Amino acid sequence: MFNLHLVLEQTDKITITASPKHQPDQEIRGARHVFSYSVTITNNSYETVQLLRRHWYITDGVFGEREVEGEGVIGQQPTLEPGERFEYQSWCPVSEDYGSMRGYFTFTELRTSKMLRAEINTFLLMPEEALN
């Protein structure tokens, strides 16, 4: 069981990049737009780490800011050796013309049991036609 009261060390040992893509052919009831996004997690440390939890803040006009939190990503809690990468894709509906996402992932170093928090910088969910 994960203890949410543990002190997490902020880390730059893990790099997370996210790339959103508008999916104009996808429809979800109540959403004006649907976006897919690809996430790449790179372990730049000398320790083997395991991703335990995700925590997203999604900003969307009608819904304001909502939180999505839970174990792992896409049903997995991947383990990354030093230098290893893990990539996955997911999606997010947006009810207005644009939105944004930001958050963090929680990891543990397997050898030391140290808990790490890796930030995910804000990225926009905006259709390409809105950029012109």
The CATH topology annotation reads as Immunoglobulin-like
Helix content: under 10%
Query: What is the C-level CATH assignment?
Result: Mainly Beta
Determine the N-to-C terminus distance: 48 Å
CATH architecture: Sandwich
Provide the gyration radius in Å: 16 Å
Notes on the protein architecture:
This protein is elongated. The strands form 2 sheets. Strands 1, 4, 5, 6, 8 and 9 form a 6-stranded mixed beta sheet that branches. The chain is built from no helices and 9 strands. The protein is an all-beta fold and 132 residues long. It has one domain: Immunoglobulin-like (Sandwich), CATH 2.60.40.
Q: What is the compact description of this entry?
A:
With 132 residues, the protein is mainly β.
List the helices and strands and how they pair.
Blueprint: E1 9-10, E2 14-22, E3 33-43, E4 49-60, E5 64-71, E6 79-80, E7 85-94, E8 99-109, E9 115-125
Parallel strand pairs: 1-9
Antiparallel strand pairs: 2-3, 3-7, 4-5, 4-6, 4-8, 8-9
